[in-house]
Amino acid sequence: KGLLAQRPPFPNPKSKIPNPKSMGGFMNDFDKFEDIPAWQESMELIRRVYEHTAEGPWLVDDVLRDELRSTAISIPTKIAKGYGLGEIMEFRKSVTSARGQIFVIKTLLYIAKDLEYLDEAGFDAINAAVESTLPLIDLLGDNLKRGAFRRSGNQ
Question: HSE on the CB side for 136, CA within 13 Å?
Answer without folding.
Answer: 29
